[in-house]
Description:
- The chain has 304 residues and is an all-alpha fold.
- It has helices spanning 2-11, 13-23, 26-93, 104-118, 123-135, 273-282, 284-288.
- The protein has 7 helices and no strands.
- α3 (26-93) runs antiparallel to α4 and α3 (26-93) packs parallel to α5.
- The mean pLDDT is 88.
Amino acid sequence: MVTIAALWQFLDIDRYFARIFENINWDIAGSLAEWTGAVGQILIAVLALALAWRQYIISRDLTIQQNVLTIQQNLITQQQTIDSYFQGISDLVLDEEGLLEDWPQERLLAEGRTAAILGSIDAGGKAKVIRFLSRSKLLTPLLRDSRLGRAIFDGNGSYAEDRNSGVRVINLGIMLAGADLSHNDLRWTDLSDANMIRANLRGCDLVRANLSRTILQEADLSGADLKGVQFFYGDVHQASPRSRSHPPNYQTGEYTGAVIENANFTNVQEMSESQRQYCCAWGGEKSRATIPGGCSDIPNKLGR
């Protein structure tokens, strides 16, 4: 320390620093200090903003991952619910030999279970349930033994149908009214007599589906594949929509048709000529305006 002090005195360093401080413009120095402080505060704010943004990105990614996991878990849970429903319905209506033994109470319970599950699953789940029930002949009116009420075989390894007076194991009724089934596979399904008013069938694959006597009023069928869809029985020139006051005639086609007033047929695929004629005749003005190929050559039998 003594050596340093001696050097300080010998080199006259204190006077050197004194001359430097005398030549400083303290107003400018003060402004510079304030400006430097302001820049520092801006840099601190930018750094804080960058950290906040990074924290937001991390939080967003975690939320997205959590949502994906939640969706996957919901799908797994839904599939487990559907599988349990399939097993429950099978146990309810089949005997130990696997044959239909569906008494009135079993049919009521089956309909109740079906109504409950269709109201709690998404469009894909609904389509799975409908395909299962339809391919299992549980939605089809079956020929019954007049005394025992049991379904009768058709001689070809399946159950015989009876469109006039057959009994369905499960009657969908209004379970699908307003339902969203868009962009799903409903090929070869039997949805006859179901009330599907205002249902969303946009983009559905309906190849060979049976929609006879189905209420499709105000339903959206835009973009759906209608190849082989059965809207009615019998001859298209005699076919007419279902009626509350008249029984269906499956030979002539009277009162066997779907109710399609105000339905949307925009851009439907594979619409046959007989389908076009029926839809133009009984769809009403709003539906007629959406039918591919137009309806100028077909009278409006609905009258509105």
